Amino acid sequence: MSKKRTEIRPTSRTIRVVDAIYIQSKLECYRGNPLIEALPPPVSKTKWKERLEQLPEMMPEERTLPPELQLHCVLKMKKAFIVQARHLEICEKADLLLRSAYVGVSMGESERRRRAQEWYACVQSGEVPDFGLGEQASGEFFSIIGSSGMGKTQSLLHFLEWIPEVIRHTASQHLQIPVIYVQCPHNGSTKDFARSILRAFDRLLGTAFDKENDRATEETLIAIAAALMDRYFVGLLVIDEIQNLSHKKSGGREEFMDFFLQLFNVLHLSIIVIGTMKAAGVLQTTFRQARRASSMGSVVWERSKAMDKGWSKLLNTLWPYQWQGEPTELTDELAAVLYDETQGITALLVRLLILIQHRLIALGKNKLTPKLVRTVAANSFVLLRPMLAALRSGNPARIAKYDDFVIPELDEFAEISGAFPRESFSATESAEGAEAIKEDTRRTVLSMLLSLGLSEQVAEFHLKAVLDVTPEATPLEVMNEVLARTKGKSARKSTESRSKKKSEGAADLPSGYDELRDAGWLPPEGGLGATDEPGDAD
Asked: Hey, is 186 helix, strand or coil?
C-alpha cells in the first residue's frame, strides 16, 4: 500500500508561517522577483551592528543582592554578543548568497523544476544524472572556518533570526523556505545528512517526511531532500560542522560532492559551510569543484592575538559586568593573565569571567586578582590544559595534534588559497600587517628547525635574535641565519660583502638538507646537546 503524501497542517502551532509583504527592489536584477522582494531588504553594516549586538542587562542594585541571587545574575553574561568585523562580513555575505540564488527563478513550471524532475527520475532508475556540471549556477559557495569557540555558528544564527522561516505567497499559495540549516552528521554519512534535511523541513512545516521515509534507501532520501528544497524554494543551505566529513573515506566524500554539485547546478542553491580548521582539508579535496563552479570566498577566523583591537574591545566591553560587590579595575596584568589562560578564544573568555565571579561570590570577596584568575582556570579548564599549552607554546608540531586549532598555510592548500582573505596571512601597509608576516615567518621556520633536530628552546632563542634585526627577511634567509648562528658564525652579510664574496668565486650557502648536513651546518645527531666527538663542545 502506497503512503499518503504528506500534507501541511496549517493549524499546527509548530509552524511559523508569515504572509508575504513585497518591497520593490531598487536593483533591476531583483525587481519583480517575488522570492527576493518578499525577503527583508538589505541593510547597512551599521544597521546589522544594531541588530546583532547583545549586552547583558545589569542594574547597580543587583550587586547588593544575596549571594545565591548574584550567582544567577552572573549567568546573564552567557547572552552577551559583542559585534566584530567578522560578524558583519558574514551577515553581508549570507544576504548576498540568499538573494543571488533566486535570480532567474520563478514560482511557475520553470526550467529549474524540469531539470530537477529529470534528475529525480534518473536517480530512481539507478542512472547517473549529468546536466553539465561545468555550467555556472546562480547560487554561490561560501565557507567559514576557524578555531573552536570563536562564534562562527552563532554569527550565522543571529543573521537567520532576521530571515522569516516560512513565507506564504498568498496569490499563488506557494510556500517559500529561504534557509535550511543542518549539521553534518558525525560519521559524514550522506544518508544521515539527507535525513537531517528532511527533519529540518518537518520542524518548519509540521510534516513527517523523515518518519514516512524511515526505510528509504540513500539514493531515494537524497532525491526526496532535493525535491523538497525545490518544492519550497530554498535559497540557502547552511551546513555546520563540515569537518565531520573528514571521517569519510575518499569514496564517501565523492558521494557527498555529487550531491552538492547537483544542488548547485540543478536547484541553483547557495551553500554556506561552517567548520573548524580541520575543515580546510575537506574544502581542498571535497569542495574543490564547487569552489571553482561558484565562489564567494571564505572567512578564516583565527583566534585573537593579545594585541588585536577586537580582543581589547571584547575584554573592555565585558569587564564592567561584575556583580561581586565593588568591581575591580582592569589592569594590564589582569588583561595579560586572562589572555594567557584563554589564548584568545572568545567562548573561553566569557566562561572564565563567569567562573571567576562565581568563585568570588562564593568566597564573599570582591577583589579580582591575577592569582585568582590562574587558580580558577587551573581548576575549571582541566580537560583543556593540553590544547591551551600547545597554543601557548606556539609550536606548530604540538598545535597540529589538536586539529580544531590548526591554521592552514596557504601554500599547503593551493586549491583554496585563492578563496582565503589574504589580509589574514600576508602584509598590509600597516604595522599590524608587518607583524603578521613576521609571525608567519617565525612559525614556518620554527617548524622546519624542529624537524631538523634543534631543540625548541635553542630555535626560539635564535629566531628571536634574527627577526629582531631583520624582520623583513624571507623564511629561507631566516633559516640559513639561524643555522649559521648555531655553528658560531653569521650568514647575514651586507650587499657589499656578498658582492665581494661572489666576485671572489665563493660558494653559495647550502640550501638542501643533504648539503646542510654534509657542510656541517646541522647540529650533531641528538641535537645541540650532543657532540661529534667526546670532549667537543658546540
From this structure: coil
CB 107 within 8 A of CB 233: yes
Q: 154 — phi, psi (to 5°)?
A: -60, -35
181: three-class secondary structure by DSSP: strand
Helix (H, G, I), strand (E, B) or coil at 282: helix
Summarised one tens digit per residue, pLDDT across range 145-164 is: 877 777 788 888 889 999 99
pTM attached to this predicted model: 0.65
Alpha helices in 28-84 (DSSP H): 34-37, 45-52, 67-74
Residue reference for cell 594585541: 307
Cell of 116: 530537477
Q: What cell was used for 159? A: 543573521
Chain centroid, CA 307 distance in Å: 21
* Amino acid occupying residue 293: A
Residue 267 DSSP class: I
Asked if residue 200 has pLDDT above 90, the reply is yes
Q: Which of 223, 6, 239 is nearest to 144 (CA)?
A: 239
Candidates 267, 263, 234, 227; CA nearest to 110 is 267
pLDDT at residue 130 greater than cutoff 50: yes
From the centroid of its chain, how far is CA 440? 19
